[in-house]
Amino acid sequence: MKDDVFYLFDKRQLYENKNYVLPNEIIKFHENQIIIDIDDNLNVPDYIKKDKKQTSYVINLISSKKSNETFNYLNIEATILKYNKNAKYEVLGVKNIEDNVISITGYEIIKIKYYNVFNEKARVEKIFFFAPLLFENFVRLEDVVYEKDTLKEYPHCKLDAYSFGYLHSVWFGDENVMAENLIQHNNFIMKNDAIYYMKNNSNGILKCIYKTPVNEYYVVRSYIAIETHRSINRTMEEKNIFEKKVKIHSSILLSFAILVPLLTILVILLLFHKIFSQKESMIYDNMRQNWKKLKHFDFNIFFNLFNYIKFQPFVIIVDDSRWIFNNKNGFIDESYENVIKSREGEETKQLSRDWPLPTDRRYYLCEVSTKYKINLFLKTPHDHYIESFWEEIIKRNITTIFYFRSLMPEENDYDYRYNNKLFTTRNYGSYSVTVTAESKESNTYISYKNLTLISNDKGTYFLKVYTIENWDINTPPVRVSYLYNLYSKLTCVSNSYNVLIYANLLPDSRVSLLVSYIYVIEVMKNDPSNDNFMIIIKTARKFKHIGPLSDHESIYLLESLLKYFVSKKILKNGKNMRRLTQDIDNYFKSYEELIECFPPQYDYIYHYIESLSDDKIKSYYGITKKFIIKDEKEMQRRCSYYYDVYGNQLECSWVDNHCGCRIKNKHHNYCIRYKNIPFYNDDELYDAKSNFVNEVFIPGNLFKYRIFDSMERKLILCQSPMDDSINNIVGIIYEKGVNIVVFMDELLNNEEEDLELTDGVTINESYREFFPNDNSEHFYGDYVIKKRSETADINQNLQGVIYSIRKINSKVREFKYLTFTASLTKKAEDHVEDYMSLILEIEESIENKCLMFYDHTGISTAAIMTFTIFLLDVVSSSVAFDPVTCLQIFRKKFCTAIRNDYHFLFSILLVICKYNEPFKNIKNKNIERVKKEICRQISFLRIHKKMG
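^ Tyrosine-protein phosphatase domain-containing protein, sequence as received from the core. Prediction below:
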């Protein structure tokens, strides 16, 4: 029906002996994409917020190309949907629509459907959820007040009470149950399409939680059981007189009964208080003396004390098994397990070392294990990679897990989400994990899950997992009693059982702050001889339980400890203490004033810069070894296209008997320059056709993600093409709509001594510019490229030119080609200005959604620029900034990119320098200190590359 024209006639104009008739209207059938919208400027499509009142909405069908074009000759239908489990919808009935106006009373899910009268198959439909406002997403039913043993109907929640949500869970008091697959659980039972709470004479609040497509809807009702009333045969006047007499007599008797014993008890309490105060004074006397040393408080002296107990980077140790970033099962406390292996020559002897700090319970620290990190790279997850985690949980008798969440990549896209699939209902090899209950703590940002862990040979195990949701990584916590509340919750739910403090990546300053707080409190309480909190922290750092803390975090820790000990009457809130507290308040006040000096979208990057202590920068040693697949078979599976092409190259060459070397066969294509730089299979970059080996393969990958809701970024990172693969890369530029191509023209040097050239390939193989320098058209297979502008020298290391590209008999496109002379052979600070000019040139381009970077390896300076663009996009997306998590996401697409630790640090340096402008008015020398320290560490790591 595309391009068909319809002529509409009025039958009334047809009468006898008339030879012709003119059409009333001529219309052309619309086949461009169309969307359904609601004419309501206060709301957005899909999710319409409203109150319970009846509201009318105008439904329009709008062309995606002409937003003001309303379609005629279209029929409209509306149906009411019911939202069920697994996000499925069920049709309940038809919704009336008159003149494109729909009336909604209460909350409903409606599907709007348009179809053209000339083509019923051309249907367009869209689902709208007319949802409650945020503060109206609950309903409180009338209280049920009943006499004991007379309740006619037990508390219950109906399964199908609402069409816009399904019953997810039921609470009565502290008891709860998940509605899914429930038959009977404790006091809960399902019958007659409802879940009942069957305990007799129940006093409490019933809470029914219904899941909707966007949030939760709550139904609350109180049940109050009272004693049976006794009849009183008095008039109201007699009753009042009687009550007054009783009160007078009771008051007189009560006064005599209480006064004498009260005086006696008061004297006894005073004596006990005096004795207890003397004992307490003796117990905490040493600690008080240490705190009194801070009466002449100076922050520089305090920071120097923290520098004295510096966090030692782990990667200086050659043995990877002791390296926090590369541990096997994620637990970092092997150093105080029952058996430790140490090597002396060829002999191995057994050592035993106990945990040296007298804490109330055993605290374990864990990050996502190396095996599980590798599992994130796999399309098909292997259960046995996660099985070892649950083995350690049972082995260490852990009953409570406190989890600090972080942004993690999703499996099918690269949107920013909080996710950890360890704590979900699933089978992992010989272990079965079931979530039996989940909810969010009232008035807090802590959610929890009850897990049942069943092992084939170890029986059933019960766990509680608490997730801290409002404290993002690399950001300061809320100051008011935050650590105190977390610690109180931890001690309440764990009792004396072992606790696991879990994070996606370690070291994590949030974990370090909480552990420092816990250890200082419990050690000083249990062993008065440990009276110096600095020594306690130093001991814990030796065992890697506490990572680096910034100056800001150290002051926060000090403030939290002072408040705890003052509140417990261990330290007196005297003049010196009040002055110290005031100094700390002034410090935080000045910090908050700094934050207010720049726009809020820069908060996360500023917090990250503030968190970069010298020790934290050193903790990045070895970061490039963190996310890598070492299993050869798995690497060959993930990079099968690469290895197929490489094998084909070997078959397409022959050995010259005269020189004894492998010579290239001119009848076959060469695409791969280095045989030890593999690339993942990428079906988005090229189709895996039967002839792709010689026609479309390039050593590279495409990485896409959303910057904002309306913009998707595409980054292509690859090797510069060889003579035989130039047409391949030109095809990628056209087919993927590349806007900017950046060639990182590296100066080859001894830094690349570990690269292995493919047989038959020499370093003289062309890898530099291959686009035309004249104004004539040049053919590259099926594509034609023409120079559209003169080459411009942006600076001495950066040149730019505009090219047009078209496929024969197809649309013409333009792209910008930048040549950047790249090198990291000098000091890092000497290269920053050149790289910043390249970033500025990319950002100022009108079209920059799809970028291509390449160098001769595909994983060197081009990878640095690609990773830097990704980091800058993360900052602009206003999410918590964590470059380590970003590297994890990046490595999921580019398996060996960011080869060295100093490449990683240089990208961070570029991000910090990019935000010099918004921070230039801040009177804070910390930013310059961070940049200088990063440059110093880059120089150090360039010399000692094997450490990273």
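The CA atoms of residues 175 and 187 lie 9 Å apart.
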